Amino acid sequence: MSARQILQSFEAWQAAGEPLVLATVYDTLGSTYSKAGHRILIAGTGDYRGLVSGGCLEGDLAERARQVIAADRPTAVTYDLRDAADELWGLAVGCNGLLRVFLQPLTPTRAYEPFKSIAAVQNGTGGAGLATVIEGPDAGATVIATATGHDARGFQAAVPATIVTGARTAAAEGVARLVKSAGTTVLYAPLRAIPKLLVLGAGLDAVPLVGMALELGWFVTVADHRPAYLARPGFERADRNVLVEPGQLGRALSLTEFDAVIVMSHHLPTDRKYLAELASFAHRYVGVLGPRARRERLLADLGDGAARLHGRLKGPVGLDIGADSPESIALSILAELQSTLHSR
After folding, report:
1. Of 63, 79, 111, which one is at a domain's C-terminal end?
2. Are 234 and 211 in contact (CB under 8 A)?
3. Cα dihedral angle (265, 270, 276, 278), rounded to 10 degrees?
4. Is the domain of 85 the same as that of 127?
5. Please, is 178 exposed, middle or buried when counting C-beta atoms within 10 Å of its C-beta (0-12, 13-18, 19+)?
């Protein structure tokens, strides 16, 4: 289940006043389904969104979540599935690993914090770092930090500067870390905004690309200057369909909000205008369909703008996986995009 689907469920549960529990994996050993920093939501009814295992541990977590809600205080639980532990539990999950999970109550009286603030970061742009106190006098306290500020909750006194710094480091490095010091254990983890993809060109081959990106839980905007193209079946699922002339993107869209752009109008002059406008923005990923020679021709036509795209413009776009259909090409593009956004 994607982060976006979890957020959608959170909004519905919050509107209904349902007590919830935030379950966060904070430590692992060996082979495990999820790693430190992974989060799921569990409702007081036992319903849950997301997985920390292959579906084997979630039932037990749901029961523990009811206890956390009743006690109104956080707790930690350890699942040791290494070697004989698999037979002991009778789960046969085959993970051969250990998971430690931290459960925090989310209630209307606490305005569903800290998850409400986590959701705001994921729904926004950019990102942040999250520090969660697992053990110590402030167990359950959190800090969400960006480069310019931070929001602290649940501390008995002033939040330690080291915790704010640790949260910012997690945001910058993109890696979760568990730190133990002076009787306190803190999980530092990155908070990433849900990717925002702009697809420029509403051809038939864009339909599977848009559909797969939405299945991943990304925000997707499709733009084209041809009304009939935007009316194709499949594009109604996109978050936005924008009718805009090439060269006028900035008037219809806030281009800085997108993490990635795919240029696929299949029309050389149109693609040239798109790239000329995109050259002024620092998107992490800009891809253009077509062979390498087409990309080089486009860059040559852009003149000075080509330098601003140098090293960022992917073309041919996508990983070389032998793609030979709109669906497999979409898979190759999204695989490359996922890799780029996660610095892999």
Report:
1. 111
2. yes
3. -30
4. no
5. middle
Residue 24 or 90, more confident: 24
Q: Report the largest interatomic distance among the alpha carbons of the chain, rounded to a whole angstrom.
A: 67
Q: Assess whether 42 and 82 both reside in one domain.
A: yes
Q: Helix, strand, coil % (nearest 5) of the chain? A: 35, 25, 40
Q: Is the peptide bond before 114 cis (omega within 30 degrees of 0)?
A: yes
Q: Which of 147, 174, 193 is the endpoint of a domain?
A: 193
Residues 245 and 188 in one domain: no
Residues 180 and 314 placed together within one structural domain of the fold: no
Residue 321 belongs to domain spanning: 196-341
Question: Within this chain, do residues 188 and 217 fall inside the same structural domain, yes or no?
Answer: no
The CA distance from 338 to 334, in Å, is 6
Q: Is the pLDDT of residue 90 over 60?
A: no
Which of the two residues, 1 and 316, has the higher pLDDT score? 316
- Please say whether the beta carbons of 123 and 58 come within 8 A: no
Say how many domains are in the chain. Answer: 3
Confidence of residue 95 (pLDDT cuts 50, 70, 90): low
pTM here is 0.89
**Residue 88: per-residue pLDDT:** 47
Which of 125, 186, 117 is closest to 145 using CA atoms? 117
One-letter amino acid of 88: L
The C-alpha angle 125, 128, 133, rounded to 5 degrees, equals 150
Residue (of 288, 273, 122) closest to 199 by Cα position: 288
> Residue 222 maps to which CATH number?
3.40.50.720
Please say if the pLDDT value at position 227 is more than 60.
yes
Would you call 281 exposed, middle or buried from its count of C-beta atoms within 10 A (0-12, 13-18, 19+)?
middle
